[in-house]
Hints:
Layout: H1 2-16, H2 18-41, H3 45-52, H4 57-78, H5 84-92, H6 98-131, H7 138-152
Helix pairs in contact: 1-2, 1-6, 1-7, 2-5, 2-6, 4-6
Amino acid sequence: MWYLESSFQLGGGYLFGLPVGFVADSIGATIGAGAAFLLGRTIGKPFVISKLKDYPQFRSVALAIQRSGFKIVLLLRLVPLLPFNMLNYLLSVTPVPLLEYMLASWIGMMPITLALVYVGTTLKDLSDVTHGWNEFSKTRWVSLFSLILSQVY
């Protein structure tokens, strides 16, 4: 479901511009990651652990996180090997402390957040140039409708 996260970030840039969109999306993504982490650590823990029984490699990841959790979480966020939503739940069953997880996730998600918000800002600028600065163009309506539709499906 990476496209849902991406569409929120694109939409943030489109609607609010680079500075405000980046700050809002960065805070929102970090809060969302923390909420999923806590959900996986509490209510969803038996389910997540049952899914990981077939993957003995995950034990070595958990051991590495026990030694240097912040660095591993940061690297996993910088190199998106897994979708962020899945990563939230997988990391919830590791011994990484919540505050380390949140800080590493926030820093690690910044580059992709900045890039996607910038693309959203550029799309708005293109729409403004091609359809006038003050009118709400058909392109903008289509973009907003697509953003909303992508969240529903």
